[in-house]
Amino acid sequence: MTSPLLDTEGLNRCIHCGLCLEACPTYRITRLETESPRGRLHLMSAIASGRVDPRESDAAVLHLDRCLACRACEAVCPSGVPYGELIEEARADIARARGTPALGKLALWSVSRPRVLGALASLLALGDRTGLRAVARRILPPRLRRLDALAPPSGRPAYRPVAVDAPRASVALLLGCVMRVSYGDVHTATARVLARLGTRVVEVVDQTCCGALHAHAGDNAEAIRLAKRNIAAFERSGAEAIITNAAGCGAHLKSYVHLLERDPVWAKRAAMIASRVRDINEYLAVADGATFGELAIRVTYQDPCHLAHAQGIRAEPRALLGRVRGLELIEMADADVCCGSAGYYNLAQPDYADRLLEGKIDAILATRPDAVVTANPGCMLQLAAGLRSRGQNIPVLHVVEILDRAMRTP
Fold first, then answer.
1. What is the 8-class DSSP label of residue 51?
2. Distance between CA atoms of residues 22 and 199, nearest Å
3. pLDDT grade, residue 1 (50/70/90)?
4. N or C end: fewer C-beta atoms under 10 angstroms in the chain?
């Protein structure tokens, strides 16, 4: 079986130098070549050429499944191997050959349906209010307790649009799936910060899940369907920019052109949309004359993989935090090493995810922060779960939550 999707030109860019090895979180855990980008590229080449059939090689599929797709290897690769695109193509081939595991199917089906996610969030909130969830935690088997610990927070306020008098600019805001249902108040904080700078958030009614999780898991058809729906919706919005406050979503929106490159008409439309996508940190960092108030707080910052590695946005969040008077930013060790969330990786590969999270929590606690700051919902969920497991009540906040609180200071 040869691969219809894998880009052999991209694979052949690898010069086997090994600079990617120490950048790779799974290689740092195992020291195994097969758990490194270089080793995985070799496996992808074997699949592309037909030397390895993913229907028959469980070992090859396992090594590829264990990749976090964090793209840290891309940041250090001297020959520009498009690893993120290649691992998605490889997983699409594997899904075509072997199907998607039941847990993955359920997760992917849920996130692209806001009503389903909303119903699940309501059930969690009901369980919290009645105390049933606390009781259930005592009797659930370990695997289900883990699912509960990683569940999105319940009861946080929904997104509320913010009016702007005489706006100087208009932008669209990607509401997404997990962010829309579980972190609506982060969307509201984003809209408030933008409003104070004279920027109005326009409503985009028909937008949906960005499809990042589907692409990462190899569900190419659904990723394309969701991308086309979002492209059409954002085209109709007429907004000057499309703002994202979820690093993984922003990276995926910017890669729509690759996802749709085999369809010339849609690829052109995708390129136009991608050119307008801005992470909120990226957008605010260049806002002329913007000031961000005062907040006396000691924080440490966790780099989301798809912000730092995929989008190259590292300095901007730190610069924004640095413009808050009274805020003290303490850098943690290995701030840009993956925390182990990586979509639903923390559910599919719990052992590796936990080992990565342990090191991350150690690094956080060493800084003695009042809060941990990051810019992606998966990181927020994972870090909060890790801190709770250590008995720590340290809040995990989005960058815009810090800015919003600071700008409300008289």
1. S
2. 42
3. low
4. C
Residue pLDDT, tens place only, 49-78: 889 888 888 899 999 999 999 999 999 999
Model confidence, pTM: 0.90
| Model confidence pLDDT, tens digit, residues 292-308 | 899 999 999 999 999 99
Which alpha helices (H) appear in 183-314, and where do they start and end? 184-196, 212-217, 220-237, 247-254, 256-259, 264-274, 280-285, 305-308
Determine which helix (DSSP H) or strand (DSSP E) holds 32, and give its type and residue range. Answer: none
Residues 6 or more apart whose CB falls under 8 angstroms from that of 167 comprise 198, 199, 200
Domains of the chain: 8-98 (1.10.1060.10), 292-407 (3.40.50.11810)
What is the distance in angstroms between the CA of the first residue and the CA of the last residue of the chain? 65
Distance CA 284, CA 194 (A): 8
Q: Which two tokens stand for residue 57?
A: 């090689």
CA torsion 296-297-302-308 (nearest 10°) is 0
User: Rounded to whole angstroms, what are the CA distances from 318 to 143, 299, 402, 405?
Assistant: 37, 11, 12, 16
The 10s digit of each residue's pLDDT in 214-224 is: 998 888 999 99
Tens digits of residue pLDDT in 140-187: 667 666 666 766 777 788 899 999 988 889 999 999 988 888 899 999
Tokens 């000057």 belong to residue: 240
pLDDT, tens digit, 9 for 90 and up, residues 256-277? 999 999 998 999 999 999 999 9
Task: Output the pLDDT for position 173.
Answer: 97
CA 70-73-75 angle, to 5 degrees, is 95
6, 13, 90, 262, 278 from 42: Cα distances, Å: 12, 12, 12, 25, 34
Count CA within 13 A, CB hemisphere, residue 184.
16
* Interacting residues of 215 by C-beta distance below 8 A, sequence separation 6+: 88, 223, 252, 255, 259
